[in-house]
Specification:
By secondary structure, the chain is an alpha+beta fold. Helices cover 15% and strands 24% of the residues. It has one domain. Strands 1-5-3-2-4 form a five-stranded mixed sheet.
């Protein structure tokens, strides 16, 4: 008899919970989460359960989700601690969270940063 597939569960985390529980890599300057563009060799050398995706929800809000996603992505994040299997983890970076300025905190840059300047996929 084959083993039943467990249904995917959803877990919502606040930013500080994500930072403490999964320990994402920080930028070299230490002023934000380190971001990796698609095609960066670090992504292919990392356990996929430690790769997360920074996304824009289309309304100007940023979020981080476990796993590798392509649609609406901004960059990838690598953590020290892997995400649990069969759980989709969504990290909230919304108004009311402890993150006052998402762009500056996540990327170590000011609000004038233009995401259009971010490198496009080569694949």
């Amino acid at each position: 008899m084959s083993e039943a597939v467990k249904p995917l569960q959803l877990e919502l985390l606040e930013y500080n919970e994500f930072m403490e529980k999964y320990r994402p890599h920080l930028s070299e300057e230490g002023n934000g989460i380190r971001q990796y563009a698609w095609g960066n060799p670090a992504l292919t050398e990392t356990d996929p359960s430690k790769i997360w995706t920074m996304l824009s929800n289309g309304e100007g809000h940023l979020m981080i989700e476990s796993g590798i996603h392509h649609e609406d992505r901004i960059a990838y994040v690598i953590t020290d601690i892997p995400a649990e299997p069969n759980i989709a983890i969504h990290v909230r970076l919304e108004a009311g969270s402890d993150v006052e300025d998402e762009t500056e905190f996540l990327f170590g840059m000011d609000e004038d940063f233009d995401f259009a300047d971010f490198p496009e996929d080569t694949n």
